[in-house]
Amino acid sequence: MYTYCSYNIPKRILVTGGAGFIGSHLCERLLDDGHDVICLDNFFTGTKKNIQHLLGLPRFEMIRHDITQPVLLEVDWIFNLACPASPIHYQYNPVKTIKVNVLGTLNILGLAKRVRARVFQASTSEVYGDPELHPQTEDYWGNVNPIGKRSCYDEGKRVAETLFFDYMRQNKVDIKVARIFNTYGPRMQPDDGRVVSNFIVQALAGNPVTIYGDGSQTRSFTYIDDMIEAVIRFMDHEVNTGVKPDDYTSPVLSGFPGPLNLGNPDETSIADIARTIIDLTGSSSVIIHEKLPEDDPRQRCPDISLAENTLNWHPVTKLDTGLMKTVQYFQKGIA
Ligand code: NAD
Ligand code: UDP
User: Fold this and answer.
1) How far from each other are the two terminal CA atoms of the chain, in whole angstroms?
2) Domain-embedded: residue 275
3) Looking at residue 94, which CATH number applies to its domain?
4) What is the DSSP pairing of strand 12-16 with strand 77-80?
5) In the 8-state DSSP scheme, what is residue 102?
6) Which of 18, 154, 299, 323 could pair covalently with 39 via S-S, beta carbons 3.0-4.6 A apart?
7) Distance between CA 41 and CA 17 in Å, rounded?
8) Residue 194 near ligand 2, beta carbon < 6 Å
9) How many domains, the chain?
């Protein structure tokens, strides 16, 4: 395999949304592995606290910028993570969420085209909407409401995928599109309304744990370390095209562009998650039921055979272990 742009060769890497939950873990791992990292963020949902320990490191730079405005930088690789990810955050200003996914994606792809950088898109299981196929494979086109409250995110991420594939076909941009399923771990925002952070914060405070609906809806949860490993393996994945590095004119041939499901095939009901978190925290919280939000998907579970075969990857962190580490993170924040 030719390794002209392999992960082992130090690179200058841009991480948009680098001060967020997933982005901050990614910046940390890239620095640990010897790369120069430019973290770009407008701090809409990310915080300086997430990257405080990285500020001052010689190979780390932070830029406050909004990706809906053009970005001019010289980089080898780009991870495009900038976008509010939790329902309450992406529904706060839905028009802005669409702008991030359309204008922001155009700016990032324009940058990748100009500097011939490989570019990763953090797409989402939400592109499957409320899926009629179970578990979801990458060739499933989804069941998405185009005019609902979640549409700004779901359709925004779908059009971002379209832009990635059009830039690949039209401009030979070297793309990697991952469909990330629910991910959890330390540095989730306590107020982001997502189920794991909500339940942990509620249980630690002894407040009622709020299950929306009857709790029979399912999700599959991936611990952050497993997700970061998959993201890096995918970005680094190349195939032997028989083209020598010097003759490299078609980066499209450098590897599998996706879309690729990244997640955990272990499916859990929301009611089970609530009980597990109450047990792990030793909380006396009671469970209460509230109204199910509009267009809340009933079931979500990835088929990850493609990722397993392509990346030789499988999530290894057990749900209890990952939840315990997340509980400990929130406990420290409260103490
Ligand atoms: P997050 O909200 O913690 O991080 C998103 C980051 O993007 C934040 O730091 C935010 O300030 C920044 N941002 C938002 N709009 C921006 C803009 N216009 N310009 C610059 N920065 C901007 O969310 P996360 O969970 O870390 O998600 C990261 C990415 O992964 C998102 O694109 C999300 O859609 C995707 N994703 C996450 C999950 C998950 O379970 N966490 C699942 C599927 C997909
Ligand atoms: N959920 C819940 N109680 C909460 C927060 C979320 O029952 O306090 C449910 C929510 O309705 C959904 C699931 O948990 O069915 C996952 O929600 P989250 O917002 O974490 O992720 P998404 O719906 O985007 O997968």
Assistant:
1) 50
2) no
3) 3.40.50.720
4) parallel
5) I
6) 18
7) 5
8) yes
9) 1
The structure tokens listed for 316 are 């290894």
Phi-psi region of 116 (alpha: psi -120 to 50; beta: other; left: phi over 0): left
Instruction: Judge whether 334 lies within some domain.
Output: no
Distance CA 255, CA 272 (A): 39
Cβ(211) – ligand 2 distance below 6 Å: yes
> Atom 1 in ligand 2: which residue has the minimum CA distance?
195
Among 161, 185, 164, which residue's Cα sits nearest to residue 173? 164
- Token pair belonging to 255: 């590897």
Q: Which residues does the annotation mark as catalytic?
A: 153
Q: 287 in a domain, yes or no?
A: no
260 close to 138: Cβ distance less than 8 angstroms: yes
Q: How far apart are CA 181 and CA 11, in angstroms?
A: 27
In ligand 2, which atom is closest to the CA atom of 182?
25
How many angstroms does the Cα of residue 92 sit away from the middle of ligand 1?
Answer: 14
217 touches ligand 2 (CB under 6 Å): yes
**pLDDT mean values, one per 10 residues, the chain (335 residues):** 68 98 98 98 97 97 98 97 96 98 98 97 96 95 96 98 96 96 97 96 97 96 98 86 46 74 97 97 97 92 96 97 98 76
Token digits for 118?
């490989």
19 lines ligand 1 (CB under 6 A): yes
Instruction: Please tell me the predicted confidence (pLDDT) of residue 6.
Output: 84
Ligand 1 centre distance from Cα of residue 256 (Å)? 24
According to the model, what pLDDT value does residue 251 have?
A: 44
282 within domain boundaries = no
Query: In this structure, which residue's CA is closest to atom 4 in ligand 2?
Result: 195
